[in-house]
Amino acid sequence: MPSLLFPEASAPAAVANPEVVADLNLDQLFASILRGREEYDLSGVFDELLGSPDDVTFRQAVFRDLESPDVAQAVRAFAGEMRRMRGQLHESSRFHYSVQRRVRFLDAAMTYVAAVRALSERLSTLEPESDGLRECVRALSRYAASQHFAKLADDAEHAQAQMRSVRYRLRVLADRVHVSPVDDEEEDYAAAVSAAFERFRQGDVGSHLAKLSSPHEMDHVEAAIAELVARLYPDPFATLAAFCEQHAKFADELVTTFDHEVQFYLGYLEFCSRMTAAGLGVCYPVVTATDSSVLVKRAYDAALADKLVADRQPVVCNDVCLARDERIIVVTGPNQGGKTTFARMVGQLHYLAGLGVPVPAEQATLPLVDRILSHFEHGENLRDLTGKLHDDLTRIKGILDATTSRSVLVINEIFSSTSLEDAVLLGARILQKVDELGCICVCVTFLDELSTVGDHTVSMTSMVAAADPATRTFEVVRRAADGLAYAGAIAAKHRLGREQVSSRVRA
Amino acid sequence: MKVHLLFPDHDPDPAESLPDQADDLVRDLGMDALFDQMAAGDDFLREVACRTVLRPLTNVNQINHRLDVIEDVIAHPDVARELYQVAVTGAEAPRRVRSWVMKDSPSSALTHAINLMHELICSMRQLHRIAAEHEREFRSTGLSALCATLRTDLAEDYITVIEDHLERLKFADGVVLTAALGDAGKGDDYVLRNRKASRRGWRGWLGLAERSELTYRVPDRDEAGGRALRELKDRGINRVADALSQSSDHVLSFFTMLRWELGFYLCCLNLADVLAEHGLAWCRPQPRPIGCGSFTAEGLYDVYLGLRIGPRTVVNDVNADGCGLVVVTGANEGGRSTLLRSIGLAQLLMQSGMFVPADSLRADIAAGLHTHFKREEDAGMERGRLDDELARVSVVIDAVSTGGLVLFNESFSSTNEREGSEIARQVIDGLLDAGVRVVVVTHMYQLAHGFDSPERTGVLFLLAERCPDGRRTFKLVEGRPRSTSFGAALYRQVFHVPCGS
Fold this sequence. Notes:
The complex is a heterodimer of chains A (507) and B (501).
Chain A: E1 14-15, H1 18-23, H2 26-34, H3 43-46, E2 48-49, H4 53-67, H5 69-94, H6 98-126, H7 131-145, H8 147-164, E3 167-172, E4 176-180, H9 189-196, H10 220-232, H11 234-246, H12 253-277, E5 286-288, E6 294-299, H13 302-310, E7 318-322, E8 328-332, H14 339-355, E9 363-367, E10 372-376, H15 385-402, E11 408-412, H16 420-437, E12 440-444, E13 457-464, E14 472-478, H17 483-493, H18 498-506
Parallel strand pairs in A: 5-9, 8-12, 8-13, 10-11, 11-12
Antiparallel strand pairs in A: 1-2, 3-4, 6-7, 6-9, 13-14
Chain B: H1 22-28, H2 31-39, H3 43-53, H4 60-75, H5 77-91, H6 93-96, H7 106-134, H8 141-153, H9 156-168, E1 175-181, E2 187-193, H10 201-205, E3 214-217, H11 223-277, E4 286-288, E5 295-300, H12 303-309, E6 316-319, E7 325-330, H13 336-351, E8 360-364, E9 369-373, H14 382-399, E10 405-409, H15 417-433, E11 437-441, H16 445-451, E12 459-466, E13 472-478, H17 487-494
Helix pairs in contact in B: 2-3, 2-11, 3-11, 4-5, 4-11, 5-7, 5-11, 7-8, 7-9, 7-11, 15-16
C-alpha cells in the first residue's frame, strides 16, 4: 500500500532524541503546527529524520503538489468529509436505540463513499507531479473502481433509498398513539383550514408558529413508534440492519492512511503560509549526502518566529555559511543578544531539512545529517558545583561518543558555572575533540578564547546598535570576538568610565 | 372582506400621524367643542373624530363617497347605531375569552384561537342579519357594498362550515399526522391530516383502534411518555394553530376596522342630532377640484357660538368666487374672527366628507388648511414678540403648498402698523403668487388699503358692520376698508375747536 510519507524503497529513519527536540524548541513548533490536528496523532512523524536525500526529495515533491490551490482544496475538502464521517460514527455509537445507531452508521458510510469518489475524481483530473501523490491517487482510483467499493456504495444507496421511502400515519391521543399506513385520501388539514378562512384576510399579521426544539436522541415514545413502523414495513429496516452488519468496517486502510498522512503536509504548509504572510522566507533546501558545506541566507528561529508573527513583532534573520573546511562556529557577544536563538536556528535548519519539509530561510543548501545532538544548560541546579561539572562532563562525553562526522552538535553555554580557568581549559579540550570528529558544531559561549581553537573554527558575534550599545540588533555576523570592547562602550554610555566616575564622585 | 366606508378602495390607518399644523388648527378654530359634541362622551369616538377630521381629503370622489354614506346614516340612524354596537362587541371579543396563549405552545394557541373564533362567530351572525335586513334601504356605494359583502361572505352555510372546522380542531379522536423517517431515524416532515370520517366506523364508537392500526400505550405513571405524546401532538398542530390564530387575527382586525369606520359616522350622527336640537341648519356641501377658484357660502355660522346661542346665531353669506384674497376689516369684536373660524371649519368639515354648518356651500378643495392667529403669549419684549411671530409664520410658509388655504387673524400686530403692514403685504403677495388662497382679518388700515387698487383683481373686501349709534350687528357685508382715523374729529373735540376751522 503506497505511503505519502515514504517512497517504496526508503532508507531507515532515525528517531530523534526528545531532549534535543526540546532544546531546539522544536517541540513548541510542532505543538503549534499540530494544534487542532490532535486526532491524527502525527507527532511520531515529526520525530523521525529521513535517511537519504531521495526520501527528502520525495516529501518535498509532495509539498510542491500541495502548494497548488486546486490540489490543496480537493484534499482539504476530503479531510473535512472524513472528519464529518468520524463524527457520525461517534454519534452512532452513542445512540441508545438501535434504529438510530444504524441510520447514523449508514450516514457515515454515505459520507465516506462520497468523499472517496470526490477525491479520486478531482485528483485524477489534476494530475499531481510528485511520485508520492501520484502513487496514492493511482491506488485510490483502483480502490474507487473496485468491486468491493462499488458494492459498498450500491448497498448504501439502496438502504438509504429504502429508508427514505417509508411514510406512515400516526393518530396521537393523550395516552396512546396508533400507527398505520398512510391514507392518501386524507388531506393536508392546515392548508384546508387556511383556505377556509381566506376571505377574512385583511393585511399582514404576525406569525404564531411556535419554535419547537428537536434533540437528536429519540425518546422512548419515538422509539416505540419506530418499532411499530418497522413492523408495518419490515423490509427497509431489514435492509438497513443487513447493511450495518455486512459493512461494519467499511473504511479502507488505504483511505484512512492517506487521510492521516496528508495532514502532516497540510499542517506544515499552514505554518509556512503564516511565515510568508509576514514577509519571511520559506524555501525547499538542497540537501546532499556528499557535500558538507552549509549555505543559508536570511534564516530565522522557526519556533520564535511562530510566536513573534502571532504578536505582530518583527523577526530578525541571519545568514549561516560554512565552507567545506569550516566546521565549528563559536558564537560570542553580549547577553540576550540572540546567540542561543542563532544556535537553535542552525539546529532547526538541519532537523527540518532532515524531515523533508521546507525550511525557514530564503535560500538553503544543507547536508543531510545522521543525527542532531545538543548540550544545553538545564535550568537551575540545586546540587553543588563540583557535582554539576561532573554531570556536564559525563553528558558531553556521552554526546561525543554518539557523534559522527555527519552529525550536527549544538552546545549552549557549557561550563558556565565553573571557574573561568576550568572553563577555558575544559572548553578548549572539548572543542579539540569536536574538531577531530569533523562534525558541524555551533558553540555558544562567553569565552572569547574558544573562538580560535582548532583549524576549522569560525568566530561569529551577536551585534549591538552602533548608536546605542544597550540595543541589541539580534544579528549574528562573522567577526572576531571582542567582548571587552562591548563592555567599554556600554560603560561609556552610562558615564561609568573611570575618569567619569571619579569626577562624578568629587563633584 | 373589507369595510371601505371611509375610503372607497382602501383601509384608513388609525395610527398615521397627524399633520404638523393639527394642534394649531384645533386651537385656532375652536375644534375641541366640536369633537366633544361628535364624541358624546365616548373616548374612542373622540379619537376617531379627531384623527379623521384632521386628515382632510383632497379628492372629490372620496369626499362624495363619505357624504353619500352620511346621508344613509342620517336617514337610518338606528341601523347605523346597531351596526356600530355589533362592531364594538366583536372588537372586544378577546376580553370575553377566558384562555390565553403560552409561548411556543401550539395547543394553547389553538385552544385560544378556537375560543376567540366562537365569540367572533356570534358577532358575525348578527352582522349578517342586519345586512340582510337593511341592504335594500341603503343608497350609498359604501353601505350597499358593505352589506352585500357581509351577506355573501357571512352566509349561514359558510358559518356552519367554520363551526364544523372548529369542532374538528378539538381533535377529540386524536391528532392525525403523516410522517417520514428523517435525520437519525427520527420522525420528520409531519403533516397534519383531516381524518376521514369513514375510518371511524363501529370500532371508533367502541373506542377501539382502526383496523389497520398498531397501538403503543403509554404506561399510567409514565410522565415523560405523556409529555412526549404532547410534544408529538404539538409538532403536528403547529401549522394549523398558526393558521387559525392568524385567521382570528384577521377577523378581529376586520371588526376593529369596522368599529373605527362606523365610529366616524356615528360621530356625524351625534353632531347632526346636536345641531338639530339647537335649531341650527346644516347642509351637504359641493366640493370642487383644486383650481376652480370657487367659494360661495350662504348662511354660514360658527358652530361653537351656535351651540351657545342657538338659532339666533348670526349667519353670513360669503361670495368669494374667483377671489384669491379675502380681506376682512371693520369694528373690533364685530364678528370678524367668528367669520374666519366659520370659513376654516366649513372648509375642514367639507374635506372630511361631512355636512357643513351653513345653508349651502360650494368651494374648492384646499391642498392644505393653515392658520396663523395672533397669540397672547407671544412673550418677551417687543422685539422678541415679533421674532416669535415671524418664526410661526415661517413654519406655515414651509408647510403650505400651491392650492392651499391660509387664514390670518390679526397677524403682525406685535409691531407698529407701518412695519406690520409692509411685512404682511410681502407675505401675502408671495402666497398669492404661489397659488395659495388667503383670508386675512386685520385692523391695519395701511395693509387693507394697500390691496384696494384698480389694478388688483380677485380681492373681496368684507366689513364688520357698525351702526351709527355704535351697535354691532356681527354681520359682515361687502365693503371697502375704512380709515379708522378719527384723529381730526377728536382733536377738535378735545381742544374745543369749532367745526370748519
